[in-house]
Amino acid sequence: MSDMARSHIEKTIAPPMGLLAELTHRCPLQCPYCSNPVELERRGDEMTTADWQRILREAAALGVLQVHLSGGEPAARRDLVELVETCAHEGLYSNLITAGVNITPERLAALEAAGLDHVQLSFQGADDEVTEHVSGLRGAFDKKCAFASEVRALGLPLTLNVVLHRANIHQVDDFIALALELGAERLELAHAQYYGWALRNRGALMPQRHEVMTALRAVEAAQTRLKGQLAIDSVVPDYYAHFPKPCMNGWGQQTINITPSGLGLPCHAAQTIPGLEFWSAREHALFDIWHHSPAFNAFRGTDFLPETCQSCDRRDIDHGGCRCQALMMTGDARQMDPVCQHSPWHEEIQTLTLEEASRDEPFAYRRFARGERHA
Fold first, then answer.
1. CA-based, 20 to 30 A from 269: which of 39, 184, 194, 253?
2. Nearest to 262 by CA among 70, 85, 92, 48
3. pLDDT digit string (tens) for 182-212?
4. What CATH number does domain 16-374 carry, 3.40.50.720, 3.50.4.10, 3.20.20.70, 3.30.40.10?
5. Known binding site: residues?
């Protein structure tokens, strides 16, 4: 690529707003909807503290505003406090995405003192029984509630994050009540996305249409009733939608994802698309990954989309939807997302949804190799 072409790319592509830092794939939970890759990156492949600190400094220089410290379970990293300190030093807003079952009050206090800005706590159920059934961890619900109380006692903002599916969709009202009880400022109710391990469990996770509609009505009513008291974000299930969601708010538009081993990804599931070349943050500066990595430029914009999308007034709203889902359902990552009602594959999606929702399958839990769960 010529220097002129490189310069043009760098001038026309805005910097990312967010960095999703997947510090580790290790996790104490065994959730059947896990969105991490089927082939997990092991502890021995994880980047060092110095690697992550350099990446955080590069993120700040690139223009990133917020860093989501994620996993797996980020608390499995012994250097989590050091990484939060680096975020604070570089002026990066830090959001800890955690299961909340393996962080002691002392460590949480250390994270707050290091400059942690926000905690996003996952709940698998609104009571002990459902939480244990989904997470595979006994006593997880009480640990999460105790952790939430500690977060609020320190004055940290708290978001509850819930992945909805057949096993817990009946608890939408209970999740809302739980968020209020725990003093959360925000509640995210997102239906399961069928990639990675969740795809393997689609027949056990897919809810019936009437369950989805009932849940959506409950959320809409609560959003009106609790406006100004609790912010409720709702992500509808793709397979029941008329239009697709914009993939990461546009492929390579707002977010950069770094895996535990350092690969730079445009989206969490991008590695499912064959033929993409992913650059490593161990070998390339974050600036170059964002602007010049072949994977990031593969589906930027909308020029690659078919004619139906080119003439659609939603083209620059949803960017044709999800590339991974288009590949999975049509065999072509450049096709429109088949959940779109204008897609020639849309009826196939509706048929598939009915079939999957009618299946009665047990969970295939996400089990990690022995010795890989904890730090």
1. 184
2. 48
3. 999 999 999 999 988 999 999 999 999 999 9
4. 3.20.20.70
5. 27, 31, 34
